[in-house]
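Teaching soon. Invent one.


***
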Amino acid sequence: MSFINTIKARAKAADKTIVLPEGMEPRVWAAAEKILKEQMAELIILGTPEMVEENSKGLEVSGIRIIDPNTSPDLERYINAFVELRKSKGMTYQEARRLLTTDFMYFACMMVKCGDADGVVSGACHSSANTLRPSLQILKTKPGAKLVSAFFLMIIPNCDMGAQGTFIFSDCGLEQNPTSEKLAAIAISSAETFRLLVQQEPIIALLSHSTKGSASHPDVDKVVNAVKLAHEMAPELKLDGELQSDAAIVPEIAAYKAPGSEVAGHANVLVFPDLDAGNIGYKLVQRLAKAEAYGPITQGLAGAVNDLSRGCSSDDIVGVVAITAIQAEALEAEQAALNK
C-alpha cells in the first residue's frame, strides 16, 4: 500500500468530521466527491445555495452536509461564543456576526472550537494569512507548544532517500525569518509530526548554506545556535546541523562533509533556515521531481486546521483532509490525557 493510501486508511479508521469552508471552489467539491466515495471522513461544506449549485454540478455529493453560515441555526451560539472569546480584543456582536457570515473560515473554526467538528481544511482559493488568522485567533496554540509552524509532507517517487522518499519540509508556510529559538521549536514539532504521520523515527537536519563551519555568517550562527537549543530541549532526538541539503540526505556526500554525524546522509525531516528557502525548496522538489506535496500543514495549534496551496489539485485536498483527520485524532488523545 502506498504511503498516502495508508494515511487515507488511518483517516477512515479515525472517523472524524472535517469542515471545508470554500464552497465557492470547484476543486473542493471534486475532492469531496472522492472523499465521500472512499468514506474517508464525514464532511461539512460551507456555502450559500448559489455557491453549491454553481460549483457542484455533475458531482455526486448528496451524502455531504452543507451549511450556509448566514442561515445556520448555530449562528447565534457561535456569535456569542466568539464575542466572549475575543472580548478583551474589543470584539463586538456586530463584528462577530459580520466575520462569521462573510468569512466562512471564522465560522469553520468556531465549529471546531464549539465541538461541532474535528478539523478544517481551507486555502484552495484563499491566502495562507486568511486561512491561519482565524485559527490563531479562535483556537490558539495547544498546551506546551511554543509556536505554530507549517510544513509540507513530501512524497518523492523513485527515491531511496529520507524515509523511502518521504520527508517533512519545515517551515515552508508561516514563520518568515525564525530566530534560533523558533527554529529549535520548529525542529522539535516537526519531529513529533513525522512520528505521528510517517510512524518512523525522525532524523532531523537543520539546513544552511554551510556544513559544519564551512562558511561564516550570522545566518549560519542562527542555525548552529538552534541546534544547540534543540539538543537541550529534546536530547533524545537524532538532530544535527548546520548541514547543506546534499550533506543532509546523500550518504556519500555526508561521509566527507560531515563525518561522524548520525544525521548527515540520512535525514528525513529538513528544517529550513527561513520561509524563502523552505517555500522555494518544496516547490522545486514538487515540480522537478514530480513529488506529491501536501500542505502547508500546521503544527502547534490546539485544533486540526490546515492550509492548502492555491495551486493545489483536488487530490491534494483529499490528502490534506486525511492528514487533518489523523491530527484531530491525535489532539483528541492528547486532550484526554491532560484531563485525566
About this structure: The radius of gyration is 20 Å. Residues 3-141+309-339 form a domain with the Rossmann fold fold (CATH 3.40.50.10950).
